[in-house]
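Q: My labmate handed me this sequence with no annotations at all. I'd like to see what the chain might look like in three dimensions before we decide whether it's worth expressing. Could you predict it?
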Amino acid sequence: MAETVKGPASYFPSIEKTYGKPIAHWKALVRQRSPAKHMELVAFLKTEHGMGHGHANAIVAHTLAEDAK
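A: Here is what I predict for the chain of 69 residues:
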């Protein structure tokens, strides 16, 4: 049985369907704007790419957590 995806990654299928781009695309955009504060990156995705707050927050949170490893 497949394990249920939790946390920010649980939004990924909806993000890809809604905005028509793979998650790697959005993560690359976030990384291009780094270093920046979390909410600045969220605001960038919302204003420049029309992304909803929850989706933008999920991408930023997951990307920053991944890069902190």
